[in-house]
């Protein structure tokens, strides 16, 4: 008799796990609660699906995971970026790497990724059952019993949980009879609302390399920064939201920020500004180009620093010069609330990694039970890393589950 393996969840992780769990010795059934498969893959990356991030080195890759980090080293060492990329290419998916390292299908369409996954699942003989909402999981002699909302049951030897991020703790209720540890869920990857921002009229403007910092903490991140009509967005803000997701939730998304628009140290900024003013003494301060930033933003910063636009560089008082420098390096704003970034978000929290063998994603206390993808306490910054973890964890769990004990 074949080993029966149930995969719960028809997202990226569930599909990839089912494909790798399938073998002549196994019967793999994938249960999906909705009537849609791979729905996040479809909408991901603005419909283009940022399927991976070009990062061949495991030690570098783990740095993109606020939750997971170093505990993912072994997993990525076994099946990381090179292996995942090779798998997709072997299936005939042509990929391209963009300048910032994000990997997309050459077609620029997530449908190409979906087709590859669906074809591979079909070829492997994975059976798919839709509208199967798992509501109860129990151990039984030699395996597990699943119960679905429609009251049907399924007995099997192995279960792979790929239910995605559960925004509420009630999402783990079906496992109540299991002795497991959970990290409280909270949203990650969001932009900052600044209702009183004096820069709202500048929406759409960006700087290439800002630092965004939360004062009186060590929390700061660097990268492109975008002014929006509701506040701030862009990689610097998204990274900050990801790295400090639980802390920012604890502050109820009410906190001050300081923006360094230049990405320079105080010393570097002071020298560059002095040298520019020295070289262009008669130039009007409003028309000065001391740094790489849009002129409308420069003028807005002059306004914040209370430096009269009509003055020439040589006429700036020492106080005005210092106020300008202060606002270039530490413009203060009050964040009040968050907004989802292009509908893209992930859930931080989930099954505690201490409960998992991180080389197989098998739950230590329950042989034959696996948990993968966003359902576990791993999430990443934007850029293809969340899917990378879905492929990695799914491959390791699926391959281990496929083995006969
Ligand atoms: C709009 C958007 C864009 C994104 N873009 C990117 C991107 O470009 N690159 C990137 O790396 N990441 C991206 N992400 C994040 C990425 O999509 C997720 O991290 C990834 O899809 C997680 O895969 P998963 O299989 O673990 O979970 P999911 O994709 O969430 O799949 C879980 C599945 O389980 C099913 N399920 C849940 N509960 C049950 C139950 N009780 N019984 C049966 N089935 C159940 C759900 O219906 C769902 O189909 C994006 C996310 C969003 C929301």
TrEMBL record:
RsdA/BaiN/AoA(So)-like insert domain residues: 187-346
Assigned keywords, A-Z: FAD, Flavoprotein, Signal
Protein origin, superkingdom: Bacteria
Domain RsdA/BaiN/AoA(So)-like Rossmann fold-like, first and last residues per copy: 4-399
InterPro entries xrefs: BaiN-like (IPR004792), BaiN-like_dom_sf (IPR023166), FAD/NAD-bd_sf (IPR036188), RsdA/BaiN/AoA(So)-like_dom (IPR055178), RsdA/BaiN/AoA(So)_Rossmann (IPR057661)
Leader sequence segment: 1-21
Cofactor(s) it depends on: FAD
NCBIfam families: aminoacetone oxidase family FAD-binding enzyme
Record's protein name: NAD(P)/FAD-dependent oxidoreductase
Organism taxonomic ancestry: Bacteria, Pseudomonadati, Bacteroidota, Flavobacteriia, Flavobacteriales
């Amino acid at each position: 008799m074949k080993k029966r393996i149930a995969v719960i969840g028809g997202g990226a992780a569930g599909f990839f796990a089912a494909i790798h769990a399938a073998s002549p010795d196994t019967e793999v059934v994938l249960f999906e609660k909705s009537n849609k498969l791979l729905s996040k893959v479809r909408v991901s990356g603005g419909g283009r699906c940022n399927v991976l991030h070009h990062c061949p080195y495991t030690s570098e890759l783990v740095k993109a995971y606020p939750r997971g980090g170093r505990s993912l080293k072994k997993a990525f060492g076994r099946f990381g970026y090179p292996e995942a990329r090779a798998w997709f290419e072997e299936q005939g998916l042509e990929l391209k790497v963009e300048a910032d390292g994000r990997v997309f299908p050459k077609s620029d369409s997530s449908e190409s990724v979906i087709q590859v996954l669906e074809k591979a699942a079909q070829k492997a003989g994975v059976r798919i059952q839709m509208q199967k909402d798992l509501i109860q999981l129990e151990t039984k002699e030699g395996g597990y019993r699943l119960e679905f909302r429609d009251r049907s049951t399924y007995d099997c030897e192995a279960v792979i949980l790929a239910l995605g991020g559960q925004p509420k703790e009630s999402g783990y209720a079906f496992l109540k009879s299991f002795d497991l540890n959970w990290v409280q869920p909270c949203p990650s990857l969001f932009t900052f609302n600044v209702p009183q921002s004096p820069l709202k009229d500048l929406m759409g403007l960006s700087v290439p390399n800002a630092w965004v910092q939360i004062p009186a903490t060590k929390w700061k991140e660097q990268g492109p920064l975008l002014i929006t009509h509701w506040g701030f967005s862009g990689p610097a803000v998204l990274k900050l939201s990801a790295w400090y997701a639980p802390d920012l939730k604890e502050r109820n998304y009410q906190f001050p920020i300081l923006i360094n628009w230049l990405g320079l140290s105080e010393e570097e900024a002071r020298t560059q500004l002095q040298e520019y003013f020295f070289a262009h003494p008669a130039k009007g301060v409003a028309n000065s180009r001391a740094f790489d930033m849009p002129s409308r933003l420069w003028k807005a910063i002059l306004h914040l620093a209370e430096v009269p636009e009509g003055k020439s560089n040589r006429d700036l008082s020492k106080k005005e010069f210092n106020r300008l420098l202060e606002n270039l390096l530490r413009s203060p704003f009050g964040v009040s609330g968050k907004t989802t970034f292009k509908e893209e978000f992930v859930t931080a929290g989930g099954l505690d990694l201490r409960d998992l063998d991180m080389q197989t994603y098998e739950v230590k206390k329950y042989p034959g039970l696996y948990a993968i993808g966003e359902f576990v306490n791993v999430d990443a910054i934007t850029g293809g890393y969340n899917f990378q973890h879905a492929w990695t964890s799914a491959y390791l769990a699926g391959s281990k589950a496929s083995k006969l004990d």
